[in-house]
Amino acid sequence: MKYEFHPEAEQEFLAGAARYESDVTGLGERFGEEIYRVIQLLLDNPELGARLDPELRHFVLRRFPFSVVYAVTSELLYIVAVAHGSREPGYWQSRVDR
Predict the structure, then answer these.
(1) Nearest residue to 72 via CA among 36, 44, 32, 34
(2) Radius of gyration in angstroms for the set of CA atoms belonging to the chain, rounded to a whole number
(3) What are the pLDDT digits (tens) for 41-73?
(4) How far apart are alpha carbons 45 and 14 in whole angstroms?
(5) What DSSP line would sit under the chain, residue for residue?
(6) Nearest CA among 74, 76, 80, 70 for reference residue 7
(7) Cβ-based neighbours of 55, under 8 Å, separated by 6 or more
(8) Angle 27-44/7-23 helices, nearest 10 degrees?
(9) I want to staple 69 with a disulfide (CB 3.0 to 4.6 A). Which of 48, 80, 88, 94 is the partner?
(10) In the Cβ-directed half-sphere of 61, how many Cα atoms lie within 13 Å?
(11) Which residue, 64, 60, 59, is CA-closest to 27?
């Protein structure tokens, strides 16, 4: 299985890493490592995340106040959002084709 970011989810990821890095040197890199650790975990066990609806799940990061919102097919883990916990729930809904 492969993974792919929605373009806006990738921007959220990069912006989060940049923000953490500007606050504390090395923290942005640790944020990136945590995101990729979660992606690998989800590639190995796509059912781990809590179900949001029939197609979407989310997985809360351990070390940062973010969730990875994703959909799974037999061939792809599609990351819809890298959502900060303070954002309005479901703000990313427009990214999902229904």
Answers:
(1) 44
(2) 13
(3) 999 999 999 999 999 999 999 999 999 999 999
(4) 24
(5) -EEEE-HHHHHHHHHHHHHHHHHSTTHHHHHHHHHHHHHHHHHH-TT-SEESSSSEEEEE-SSSSEEEEEEE-SSEEEEEEEEETTSPTTTTGGGS--
(6) 80
(7) 71, 96
(8) 140
(9) 80
(10) 25
(11) 64
Give CA–CA dist 92/89, Å, rounded. 8
28 touches 61 (CB < 8 A):
no
Each residue of 72-83: pLDDT tens digit? 998 999 999 999
List the structure tokens of 31: 């944020």
Diameter of the chain by CA atoms? 41
Domains and CATH numbers, the chain: 2-95 (3.30.2310.20)
